[in-house]
Specification:
Elements: E1 9-11, E2 17-20, E3 41-43, H1 46-82
Antiparallel strand pairs: 1-2, 2-3
Length: about 80
């Protein structure tokens, strides 16, 4: 598995969230699942889904803060250059 660029999650039409089975060490995948265009998913438990949700919120908050900080720094730098 190539971390983190692999497709790690999928959502089914009925709203179930699946984890890519290739991310699990204890899953024996058939040859078909080794192909890059086939997604074999394992359903998440409600507790695992809550953990994923919390981690995604944290990760997206961190990414937003980094971008906002970079923009603020660039804006201040441009103002200093204009003086």
């Amino acid at each position: 598995m190539r971390w983190p660029r692999e497709r790690l999650f999928a959502v089914t039409t009925d709203g179930e969230v699946l984890l890519n089975a290739r991310a699990l060490d204890d899953v024996d995948l058939p040859e078909l699942a080794g192909r890059m265009d086939v997604f074999v998913g394992v359903p998440l438990t409600p507790a695992e889904l809550a953990q994923v949700r919390d981690q995604l919120i944290n990760a997206s908050s961190e990414a937003a803060a980094l971008i906002a900080g970079r923009r603020k720094k660039n804006r201040l730098h441009r103002r200093q250059l204009k003086r």
